[in-house]
Amino acid sequence: MMNILVTNDDGITSAGIYALATALRSLGTVTVVAPDRQQSAVGHALTVSEPLRVTRFWRDNQFFGYAVSGTPADCIKLAVARLLDRKPDIVVSGINHGYNTGINVLYSGTVSAATEAILLGIPAIAISLGSFDEEVDCSVAARTAAYLVEQYHNLELPPSTLLNVNVPALPEDQVKGIRITRQGQGYWNDTYHERLDPMGRPYYWLAGTYNHLDDDPNSDDVAVDRGYIAITPIHYQLTDEKAIELLKRRL
Question: The dihedral of CA 222, 218, 236, 119: what is its sign?
């Protein structure tokens, strides 16, 4: 039986993490270590200027996991360093409410938690569902996650690669299948709404619209829009090898 560490960035109270942990319990021992509040779009931030607090969290009158006063990456580091008896066999981050496709992987706390696991030498999966509705049916995404965990070691992925999985919010009989995809080229048109607080002082709230840059059916954005589950292998070797040779010539 596997030892599975589950986390997310929507917080330990979210519907997605509950569905995920429940689905994975048939595969092994599941430990939940997740933020105690919403931590979407915090990226790979770590808490360094204040202490981390850990609280035992109960759900349905049963112990569910540990709520941490930090980021998703904090949760992984703290779990491995102090909260767990041994390193987990795999980390699964999610189920995130909202897609993590295209440029969103850079901002996502869900993907960053999986990235932190990879950096610690632990296989990892990030899984997201294309709906922000807390009442949405998470069962297809949860079963997808369980299937991938069960098959993970047969995939023989490089140790530096995680799986970023995006599932359309559709009934199971409307999901067209699985596509192995690349990260899409979508981007955000950001805007900031200016509002006034009760004292008449201005504040700003980030908003915007997400735009696709390509129509490649093998990109994650396009695949989920067309009703497929998109599975994208991601690694974080950021060096631009071509630019190295260019700079050697120019400098």
Answer: positive
As a CATH number, domain 2-184+216-250 is 3.40.1210.10
Tell me the three state secondary structure of residue 48: coil
pLDDT digits (tens, 9 = 90+) for 48-107: 999 999 999 999 889 999 999 999 999 999 999 999 999 999 999 999 999 999 999 999
**How far, in Å, CA of 2 to CA of 28, rounded?**
5
What residue ranges do the domains of the chain occupy?
2-184+216-250
Residues 144-195 pLDDT 10s: 999 999 999 999 999 999 999 999 999 999 999 999 999 998 788 888 999 9
d(CA 207, CA 191): 5
Q: Which residues contact 198 (CB under 8 A, 6 or more apart)?
A: none
pTM of the predicted model as reported, rounded to 2 decimal places: 0.93
Structure tokens that stand for 22 in this block: 């429940």
d(C-alpha 91, C-alpha 118), whole Å: 9
Q: Which residue bears the tokens 């295209």?
A: 102
